[in-house]
Structure formats: C-alpha cells, structure tokens
Amino acid sequence: MKDVPGSPGTPGGLALRASQCLCSLASLAAMATAFGFSNYSAFFFLVLSMFLELLWSFTLLCVDIHSLKHKTDLHNHGLILIFIMGDWIVAISSAATACSAAAVAIFLERDIKFCRVYQHVSCSQFKASVILAFMAWSFVAASATSNFFLFVSLLP
After folding, report:
1. What is the pLDDT of residue 1?
2. Which of 56, 70, 79, 137 could join 94 in a cystine, given CB atoms 3.0 to 4.6 angstroms apart?
3. How would residue 115 be classed by pLDDT, with cut points 50, 70 and 90?
C-alpha cells in the first residue's frame, strides 16, 4: 500500500505542504502586523510556532517539488521517519500555541471586554491569526497522519 494520499513526493503531498505554507505565512503576517501582539506571550509564541511551521513546510515543499520534477521516490523508511517526527513536533507545537492564543483572544474580547475599551488593539487580527493557525495545524496533522500510514505500509 504505497498509494497513500498526501504522502511525500505526490501531488497530494505537494498540495498539503503548499497549504501549510500559505496558512502559516498568513497567520504569521496577521499576528506580526497586529498592534501590541508582543505584549502577550501566547501571541508571541504563536508567531514563533508559525515561523517554525513555515520553515518546516517550505523545506518539505521544496523537497516535494524536486521529487516530482525529477521523479524520485521518497518512500523509504529513513526519510518517512524524519518526516513523521518533524510533522508531529510541528503539529504539537502549533496546536498548543494556537489553543493558548485562542484562549487569550477570547479572554480579551469576551471576558474582560478589553477590545471595546482599547480600540487601538488589533483584536480582529488576533482572531484571524488564530483561525489561520488552526487551519495550518489541520494541514500539518493531515500530513503527519498520511506519513504515519505510509510508514506502516512500508514495514515488512
């Protein structure tokens, strides 16, 4: 069973990596341009996590492009194991930071009505960045899952 949707070196894998890059870049841009994001550690760590996800996803996007262009097979145990470990590390860190940033955004807007009192704080950008971070996490989780199923199918 080597035909796992979303596995490395396939058009589905390329689409997953491109989606990860796009969502993490958009989340990073939305949060980095928001006024006052660095005052909250959850938002700061979301930027750091999205930067890590962007680097990881862009690197694997380039690997997928090279693999598709030169028709090389990426389905071996060593590479897939590296992809699995990297994907799960990135997925766990992005899920944790997205959840904590979502909690802070909800706390600021709904619980203490901070966004109504201080109009100059970019609460809408905070929310948009968190939504995009969850979207990026869903793509990296899908990629990690497909890589795991590919790894299991390659076992003797």
Report:
1. 47
2. 137
3. confident
Helix and strand numbers (H, E) in the chain are 5, 0
5-43 confidence digits (pLDDT tens)? 899 999 999 999 999 999 999 999 999 999 889 999 999
In the DSSP assignment, the letter for residue 108 is I
CA distance readout (Å), 126 to 6, 25, 99, 121, 153: 30, 14, 12, 9, 41
Tokens of 18: 């491109």
Cβ neighbors of 71 (< 8 A, separation 6 or more) are none
Q: Please state whether 113 falls in left (phi above 0), alpha (psi between -120 and 50) or beta.
A: left
Structure tokens at 36: 């006052």
Share of the chain above pLDDT 70, in %: 99
The closest of 55, 54, 62, 49 to 8, measured between CA atoms, is 62
Average pLDDT over residues 88-107: 96
State pTM to two decimals: 0.93
Helix axes 77-106, 41-70, angle to 10 degrees: 150
